[in-house]
């Protein structure tokens, strides 16, 4: 005989089911992106120097957006690097960018225009600081660069910022103690090959193609830098950490040995005025296309969902916050 519920029980069951549907609907509203349709419009994205990691990352991100956000037009704008990128976004010259945490922190500390509006979307990957010298060089540490011709990166670049700080931590003044060459690190490879430069600094993800290419064309060596981390911290460089380049990053240049160096996080940066729905979708785009971007930007494969929301020193943008809440286990 089929079970017949009392009328009051049936009513309560229906009320309970209706309440459950309301809760489920609210949960979907909270977890899913703003709206059903992908956002459109036009945004500007400040990248970096020619053939540098930031430029390539921006190009791959634009390709991913063309597939996943077909109504969004991404305008890529070349730059000198992190310092210029931060300023551009903070002052409204660009909508999004990639910048190293040390450049962001410096802009905040100097109370740059719009610094309080800056927000983080994703912690992307770490840059590793490279100090490259010819294999026959007598330079064994940073202090050994005194009176040497050193490519330190152009003004406005993240490389220039970190080169100045690393030299300072070793007791050298970039203007007084070395012959500073204000060229890009890519240009530094040419100058090293021609003998016009004695060393060059680079800060980028592992493995950087132009450094790898140089190691196949001439005998080079990577100078260890990790011993300077404590001094950098004492001098206010709190966003640097000790790191190790694995032996297989640049095997010949490293003599098949790991190299102790310094690393700093890269962040996807925007401002509090960026549309929350768009920012949520862009954050999702970066995470979902990690492996595809990594085919050309090897460091992109290191984007970790567990740590990607830690965009210190920047507060997480509300749109990005919604994305991370939606994928939280």
Question: Topology, please?
Answer:
Elements: H1 7-31, E1 41-46, H2 53-68, E2 72-77, H3 82-90, E3 96-100, H4 101-109, E4 118-134, E5 149-151, H5 158-169, E6 179-181, H6 185-194, E7 199-204, H7 209-217, E8 220-222, H8 229-234, E9 241-245, E10 259-271, H9 276-288, H10 290-294, H11 318-327
Parallel strand pairs: 1-2, 1-3, 5-6, 5-7
Antiparallel strand pairs: 3-10, 4-7, 4-8, 4-10, 9-10
Helix content: 25-40%
Q: In sequence order, what are the helices and strands, one letter per element?
A: HEHEHEHEEHEHEHEHEEHHH
**Average pLDDT figure:** 89
What count of helical segments does DSSP give? 11
- What is the number of beta strands? 10
Largest sheet: 10 strands, mixed
User: What general form does the structure show?
Assistant: globular
Instruction: Give me the Rg, rounded.
Output: 24 Å
